[in-house]
Amino acid sequence: MRQLWNSAQPIHSLSEETLVPFLDKLRLGDLSMDTLEKVGAKINLNLEQLILPCLTTKDAPFHSIKIITPNRNQSDTIEPDSGPELDEYYRVEEKNIPKQHPWLLGYHLAKNKDEVIVTATAADTLTALDCLAVPAVCLPSGISNLPLATMAFLESFRKITLWLGHGVQGADCARAFARKLGEKRCRLIRSSEETPSALQCRMKGKNVAQVLKTALPMTHKSVTTFSSLRKDVYAEITQSSTVAGVRWRRFPVLSDLLKGHRRGELTVFTGPTGAGKTTFLSEYSLDLCMQDVRTLWGSFEIRNVRLAKMMLQQFSGLMLESETREMFNVVADEFEKLPMYFLAFHGQQDVTSVLEAMSYAVYVHDISHIVIDNLQFMMGTSSSEHSSMDRYYRQDQIIGSFRRFATDNNVHVTLVIHPRKEAMDELSASSIFGGAKASQEADNVLILQDKRTNDPTCRRKYLEVAKNRYAGDLGVMPLEFHKESLSFAPRNKRTASTKVAAAAAANNNNKVNQFTSSSLQSGRGRAQ
Ligand SMILES: Nc1ncnc2c1ncn2[C@@H]1O[C@H](COP(=O)(O)OP(=O)(O)OP(=O)(O)O)[C@@H](O)[C@H]1O
Question: In this protein, which residues make up the domain named SF4 helicase (predicted)?
C-alpha cells in the first residue's frame, strides 16, 4: 500500500489537461480539484489509478486506501442500478487495500459534524462531497456488510442519510444497516430510477441537492402506508429478476421453480431420516454463500467440524482425504474467504438462546441466510408426560418465532423439520411433524424425497417444491448424488471456485485436471 501511495502524484502537481481526461475515464470528469484535494487524493497515471486514503484526521497516518481504476475485467463490474444507458459508468472498478478494513473514506471531513451521508462507493462519496454541503463517507465494504468497528465511527452523528444505490439489494441493506445504527437517526434515499446513487444522479443531470431532500425517515416498522410501499411495488414490477433473489448456480431447476433465494422468507425443509437433508442443505447454502449471501449455519445434530469438512469437499469437488496438505491449504484458504458463520451449539438447545445468537450474528455479521438443522433440537427431550398435543403446541410456537425472526430481520431462514414417523414412502407437506402451522407459515416447503424403486439396492432421490409462495410453481428437481464431492448437483454444475482451480494450477497439483473448463468459468460471482 505504501509503495503505491508513494509512487502516486498529488493532485496539485498535475495539470488540468492531464487530469480531466483521466477523470473522464473514471466518469468523474465533473469533480472539482478542490474536492480531490480535500479528500487527499493522489493519482498514478501509469497504472490509471485514483488513490484515496481513508483518513481519520487530516494529517494522521492512514491504514487503508481505496483505488478507482477503469475496469478491464468486465466480470468484476458493479451491477447497474438501472438503465442500460449507464453501463459505461460500470466499467470502473473500486478496490480496497487492505481488502477488509473498518475505515470510512471521507471521515476526516465529517468528524465532529452533526450529520453525514453514507454511500457505498468512493465515486458516490466524491460526488456527494462535490455537490453538497453535508459531508459524506464511503462504507469500507459497500453494501456487503457494516462492520462493528465502522459503526463506532458513525456513533457520534445525530442524523445519518443512507444513500447506497444498488437497486433493491441496496435498499434491503440500507434497512438492515439502519436497524444497526438506530432507525431514529437514519434517513433513506431509496434507490430507484429517479433516485439512483449520487454519481448516477449527477450523470443523469439531476440536481444532487434536490435528490438529497427526498430522503425519508426510516418508518416505524409496524406502521406503513402505500406511499412508502410505492417504490418497492414499482421495483417488484420493473426489477423482477433482482427482487426474485439470488439464483442457485448448481441447481438451475430449483432456481427456475423458486426464481431465487430471497431475504425475509421462511423455507421449511423435510425428508426421511438419513435421506441426505444435511448434505443437500450444505451444498444449497454453500452455492448461495459463494455468491456473497452471508450465511449462518445452526447444525445441532452434526458437529461443525464435520459440516465444514463436508462443505469443503462440496466447495472443491475433491475428496480431501486423498489430497495433499498443500491442496487442503489451497482449498481452505479460499473457503475461509466465504461469508460463512456457524452457531457453536450442539444437541438440545433452548430456542431463546438460539434466537439470541441469531440476532447477534445478524447484527454483527449482516447475515442474510440462516440454516437451522433441525427444529427438533429446540423441542426439549421427549418424555411421556408431554402429550403429542403439548409437543405440537410447542413446535408451533417455535415455528412462529422463526417466522417472526425472518420477517423482522429481513433474513431468509431455512428450517429443517423431520416428518411424522408414520409418514409413508412419499412425503407431502402434511407429512411434516406437528400441526399445519409449519406449512402455513412457510413461504417455501421443500421435500427431499427418497423413493424405493423396483431394484431394492437403488433408490430415487429428488427435491420436491411443495409450496412456493413467491412464484407459485410447484415441481421436482432430480438429484444425482456424487459420492466423492458429496454433491447433488448435475455433473456439469459441480463447480469449484475459480480461485481454488487457479491456485491448484499454480501449485502444479495434478488434481487440477479434475477441474473441468466449465468449472473454471464458474467461480464466485461477486468479489468479496
Ligand atoms: N443420495 C445419497 N446417496 C448415498 N448416500 C448419501 C446420499 N445423500 C447423503 N448420503 C450420505 O448419507 C449420510 C446421511 O446424510 P445426511 O446426514 O445428510 O442425512 P439427513 O437426512 O440429514 O439425516 P438425519 O435425518 O439423521 O438428519 C451421509 O453420510 C451422507 O454422505
Answer: 240-495
| CB distance 138 to 124 below 8 Å | yes
Residue of 50, 57, 47, 8 lying closest to 29 (CA atoms): 50
Q: Write out 271-303 in H/E/C secondary structure.
A: CCCCCCHHHHHHHHHHHHHCCCCCEEEEECCCC
User: Residue for cell digits 429443517?
Assistant: 416
- Nearest-angstrom CA–CA distance, 353 and 30: 53
* Ligand 1 close to Cβ of residue 279 (< 6 A): yes
Minimum CA distance residue for ligand 1 atom 6: 276
Q: How confident is the model at residue 505, as a pLDDT?
A: 62
Say if residues 166 and 191 touch (Cβ distance below 8 Å).
yes
- Position 224 pLDDT exceeds 80: no
The model's pLDDT over 451-502, given as tens digits with 9 standing for 90+, comes to: 877 776 777 889 999 999 998 999 999 998 998 889 998 877 766 665 566 6
Cβ–ligand 1 contact at 461 (below 6 Å) = yes
Q: Is 183 in the pocket of ligand 1 (CB under 6 A)?
A: no
pLDDT at 17 over 50: yes
Ligand 1 centre distance from Cα of residue 14 (Å): 64
The size of the chain, in residues, is: 528
Report the SS3 class of residue 308. helix
Q: Is the peptide bond before 374 cis (omega within 30 degrees of 0)?
A: yes
What gap in Å lies between CA 133 and CA 115, rounded to an integer?
10
Q: How far apart are CA 247 and CA 230, in angstroms?
A: 26
Burial of 204 (0-12, 13-18, 19+ CB in 10 A): middle
Q: How far does the centroid of ligand 1 lie from the alpha carbon of residue 290, in Å?
A: 22
What is the predicted pLDDT for the residue at 89? 45
Computed over every residue of the chain, the mean pLDDT equals: 84
- Three cell numbers written together for 468: 412456493
CB 154 within 8 A of CB 118: yes
Sign (positive or negative) of CA dihedral 364, 370, 372, 375 = positive
455-461: long-range pairs with CB below 8 Å, 24+? 461/275, 461/276, 461/488
Give 124-156 pLDDT, tens digit per residue. 999 999 999 999 999 999 998 899 999 999 999
* Residue 229: pLDDT over 90: no
Q: Which atom of ligand 1 is nearest to the CA of 281?
A: 18
Here the ipTM equals 0.90
Cβ–ligand 1 distance for 462 under 6 Å, the answer: no
Strand pairing report for 65-70 and 369-373: unpaired
Nearest protein Cα to ligand 1, atom 23: 274
Residue 515: predicted pLDDT: 40
Is the pLDDT higher at 285 or at 71? Answer: 285
- Give the atom of ligand 1 at the shortest distance from the alpha carbon of 302: 17
